[in-house]
UniProtKB/TrEMBL annotation:
Residues 20-95 form the Ig-like domain. Belongs to the type I cytokine receptor family. Type 3 subfamily. The keyword Repeat applies. GO terms for biological process: negative regulation of neuron apoptotic process. Residues 1-18 form the signal peptide. CDD domains: FN3. It comes from Microcaecilia unicolor. This is Cytokine receptor-like factor 1. InterPro entries: FN3_dom, FN3_sf, Growth/epo_recpt_lig-bind, Ig-like_dom, Ig-like_dom_sf, Ig-like_fold, Type-I_Cytokine_Rcpt. Its main location: secreted. Residues 116-211, 216-320 form the Fibronectin type-III domain. Keywords: Disulfide bond, Glycoprotein, Immunoglobulin domain, Phosphoprotein, Receptor, Repeat, Secreted, Signal.
Amino acid sequence: MVPAVVLGLSLLTLGSWADPAVVVPQDPTLVIGSSLTATCTVSPELALRAEDLFWTLNGRRLPWEVSKVLNSTTLAVMLTNLNGSKQQSGDNLVCHGRDGRILAGSCLYVGLAPEKPNNITCWSRNMKDLTCTWAPGSEGETYLHTNYTLKYKLRWYGRDNKCLEYHTIGPYSCHISKDLALFTPYEIWVEASNRLGSTISDTITLDILDVVTTDPPSDTHVTRVGDLEDQLIVRWNSPPALKDFLFQAKYQIRYRVEDSAEWKVVDDVGNQTSCRLAGLKPGTIYFVQVRCNPFGIYGSRKAGIWSDWSNPTAASTPRSERVTGVCDPKSGEQNSTLRRELKQFFGWVKKHAFGCSNLSIKLYDQWRVWLQKSHKTRNQVLPGYKS
């Protein structure tokens, strides 16, 4: 059964009148769905009767039907099935005189006890710090101000430590900026508390080396591949903060055309610091980004955590200069067959060279440049030529 709160005034409370009126109870904390009876008693020195008073809740006047005159100077209000507080600082229940003057008030805190925090996730940027996030429970909203405290300690020894820098990347996050140990597991948990209770999350155990992420790759730039109309080459440097550490890395590239929000991702980059993109549109501006995933740091067997993407870098493929709609008067079936066979060959090479495989395509580049130049020559309309 939902509890009801009914409190009146004692003779001791009325013994001294420092205010024009007194509201009881003062600042109660209630569970959602509770009922409450509060009273407002005016000072005998005021020429006011209980019938002259009225109540407001968060500035909205309550109907007289929920009020009850207890005696000549005391007016009660009955609130049932209370909803969660509209503001974490409490709902304002105020007693007014007949002219609207505020005589006294109380804050109502109506909400829920915190649920057990879950889904604790942590990462270390360049092994220099630790950032953790968590979820506040299945419901999350308690309607009351709820304190979250992230605590941590070395697994086998050491004292409990409190994280101090909260809300660094969101409402449920904390950042530990220094004094972290490597090669020793940490135990990490979150405590939640408010006016209605407290709870503790499950404890997770992690090693800093297993949750490392890096800064994005630096000095990313994109250039053309000679006169090839459908290719760009991307180059970048490894994250500088980890250059002195023993680790492996794998990279990922994504790119999109200027007028599109859809990214295409190249996954097979491996640990190279360059990659050739093929099959692009001629005369098109592309935006390119790179990110890094460190793994195997000092022998760690855990997968790394992807860095943020680097800042977008833009480049354009060469514009096609081919003349369309002009027929080669000397073309024959033999030449058509040759072109078809070459097209199939180039398609095979492009398929096996797409992405960032280690296949050498120097010969392919030479053939492509030769084909483009010869194609332009064959389709060029010579001065004085008339169809």
